[in-house]
Structures are given as C-alpha cells and as structure tokens.
Design goal:
Length: 143
C-alpha cells in the first residue's frame, strides 16, 4: 500500500479529512521518546494506520540529538515502517502540522523545532505516494 501525508495548520481539518477517507483505520499517537519505527507494533494487515503527534514528538527530541543524526534515524525508521506496512498491505498515513507560514520565533530551540518539522515533512513527502494539504477543511492533493 502507499504512504500518505496530510499536512496543514492547527485545527485545519486534517483529522476529519483522514477519518472520512479511512474510516476503519487504526490511529496511533507517537509517544515522546519513541522511535518512529516502533509504530510497527500498531500495524494490522489490510488496515490503514494513521500516525499523529509528529510535532510534539519532534519537540521532545530537541534535547536528545543533533539534527543530522536525528534526521538519519527517522529516515531509516520511515523506510522500515513503510516496508512493513507494504508487507501487511496496510496504508500508512502521517498527519503533520504546518508551522512554516507564521512568525519566526526568537528562541533558538523554537526555530530548530520548525526546522526539524520542515525536514520531517520533506522526508515524508519524498517517501510518500500522496501528499495532501488541508486548509479550512478543504483537501488539496499536492502529490
């Protein structure tokens, strides 16, 4: 199956859009200290898996690693998770929050968090078969 990314601002309607498209999906919220690959435990054959909580998960990772090793880790995990989802014929859906259109924060850690979020979304976009932007409840397919 395919990996898909739904991105949009806070309260833009991402969850509703995903719930409408994948009514039988299993929903999984990332815990703050886990690796992305650990989401495999929630995969069920022939059942979509929706992953949420990416922004908070990245925020918790700020203190744990430098940018490059952190990014390499989630890229490897994304590959592993996608492969396992394919083996189980389970669509993989990631919901991410768009934060790049607002005011640039003054605090270095908040700027770094926005960088990490942007890189994560770029990596998910590169791997994903479909990317949708959600704004005001409207879904626009970007890829």
């Amino acid at each position: 199956m395919a990996m898909q990314l739904f991105i949009g601002g806070a309260c833009a309607g991402k969850r509703d859009a995903v719930a409408a498209r994948f009514p039988g999906a299993v929903w999984y919220r990332l815990t703050l200290s886990q690796r992305l690959a650990e989401c495999q435990q929630a995969l069920v054959a022939d059942t979509p898996l929706v992953i949420t909580g990416v922004f908070e998960w990245l925020e918790a990772a700020l203190a744990n690693a430098e940018n490059d090793p952190l990014r390499e880790q989630w890229q490897a995990d994304m590959t592993q998770l996608s492969q396992r989802a394919d083996e189980l014929n389970a669509a993989l859906i990631i919901i991410a929050t768009e934060v790049g259109r607002g005011i640039v924060p003054m605090q270095p850690e908040q700027r770094r968090l926005r960088d990490l979020n942007g890189w994560f979304v770029q990596d998910a976009t590169a791997r994903g078969d479909q990317v949708c932007y959600v704004r005001h409840g409207l879904v626009v397919a970007l890829k």
